[in-house]
Specification:
single chain, about 60 residues, alpha+beta, three-stranded antiparallel β-sheet, two-stranded antiparallel sheet, 2 helices, 5 strands, about 25% strand, globular
Amino acid sequence: MSRVEIDWRRCRGHGACSAALPELVSLDQHGYPVISDPQVPEELAGAARAGQWTCPAAALRVRA
């Protein structure tokens, strides 16, 4: 199973991760991501990878 992580040194609060993976990532009051569960279920693996590739700051990471 994969895990999602945020690289806080890179994150700028664009919100693309939440748009790609709303089941696991929401946004706080300032627009920064909050991960409800870092474990990515197999059925969301494609959405997690899409979130990783669409993040303009390359801050969302999917790890095996």
